[in-house]
Write a structure and sequence with these properties.
Elements: E1 6-9, H1 14-26, E2 32-36, E3 48-51, H2 57-67, E4 71-74, H3 80-85, H4 87-108, E5 112-118, H5 141-160, E6 164-169, E7 171-173, H6 186-195, E8 200-202, E9 210-214, H7 215-227, E10 239-240, E11 244-246, H8 248-258, E12 264-266, H9 270-277, H10 286-292, H11 300-318
Parallel strand pairs: 1-2, 1-4, 2-3, 4-5, 5-6, 6-10, 7-9, 8-12
Antiparallel strand pairs: 9-11
Helix pairs in contact: 1-7, 4-5, 6-8, 6-11, 8-11
């Protein structure tokens, strides 16, 4: 039985940081090759790491050959709000990189490819809660690129039999990485300000409800999907994935329950507010639950408690 060798592209990002660790635990550190266009943020980490520009197809090909890669987790992308600052660059990075990965996987007959999608594929015409099969009319270049990416993934499965798997992530909340420029990142930054006893200016209005997920649930969902038997996977575009949904006012109240002195005010960013307003408030993920048994573990209260505990522990270690 051959040994799996896994390539993680975009390993320095919010998702990549924790997914790489989880993959090293699920397999062995030597089986997971982490790459990013930037040098590794922690050079002492027990990680096989290489600098890689995924737009350089020759460099990508050489990396896959050298390490005898069997699976690729392609996480590199420019996120929603950042993407609107340079739409053409965002399209190039998000789409050309994916096509490089899919073509290489087809040519070398890799076992699996993982591609993260997003709630950014929804739009103002999407019913709420967003069904698995529904109207998708994204308003950002990030959402447009993710929707196109979903269709390319399904195309490579239908035409070439490539086992591509994908999840439409809600906003992801993590204590391991700082906010990365996404529209939902207020729900990460709020914790950093609260544990440092600093006031927080929220860039979304108080009643803006969005689907969210705690990173441990997102990592578990990703691994469960990738480890599921092929016959259980009925969707090769992207699965809806749900967990919790809340407004800025609701998460602020949950934070204040544990840090009573916390103060938050609103300084709405028109661009991010418009993006958030175009997304679905909640997600129907029944297909994922039926196909491969998805079920979230964290609700708002347990997530807030765990985030605060972990960030306080980190601050104590730095003191």
């Amino acid at each position: 039985m051959k040994e799996e060798k896994i390539l993680v592209i975009g390993a320095n990002g919010q998702l990549g940081t924790e997914l790489t660790k989880a993959l090293q635990t699920a397999y062995k550190p030597s089986q997971v090759i982490a790459t990013d266009i930037r040098p590794q943020s922690n050079p002492d980490a027990d990680t096989c790491f290489e600098v890689l520009d995924v737009l350089d197809k020759e460099a990508l090909t050489q990396t896959v050959r050298k390490h005898k890669i069997t699976q690729i987790y392609h996480l590199a992308a420019i996120l929603s709000a950042k993407g609107e600052e340079n739409p053409i660059l965002t399209w190039d990075i998000n789409m050309k990189s994916l096509l490089h990965v899919l073509e290489l996987a087809r040519e070398r007959q890799l076992d699996k490819v993982y591609y993260p999608s997003s709630i950014a594929v929804y739009g103002t015409k999407t019913p709420i809660p967003a069904p698995q099969w529904t109207v998708l009319n994204p308003s950002t270049v990030y959402g447009i690129s993710k929707l196109a990416g979903e269709k390319w993934c399904d195309y490579y499965f239908q035409k070439y039999g490539l086992d591509v798997r994908s999840l439409r992530y809600p906003g992801l909340i993590s204590h391991s990485a700082p906010p990365g420029g996404g529209t939902t990142d207020y729900a990460v930054d709020i914790f950093h300000k609260a544990v440092r006893q600093e006031p927080f200016a929220c860039f979304l209005s108080e009643n803006t409800r969005l689907p969210m997920m705690y990173m441990p649930d997102a990592i578990r969902a990703t691994l469960e999907l990738m480890h599921a038997p092929a016959e259980k996977i009925t969707i090769h575009s992207s699965y809806n994935l749900g967990a919790i949904d809340f407004t800025p006012a609701e998460i602020a109240q949950a934070v204040k329950a544990l840090i009573p002195e916390f103060e938050m005010h609103y300084q709405v960013n028109p661009l991010k507010q418009a993006i958030a307003d175009s997304w679905a408030d909640a997600i129907d993920d029944q297909v994922a639950r039926q196909d491969w048994g998805w079920k979230p573990e964290y609700d708002l209260k347990s997530m807030v408690a765990d985030m605060i505990a972990n960030l306080k522990a980190k601050i104590a270690l730095q003191a």
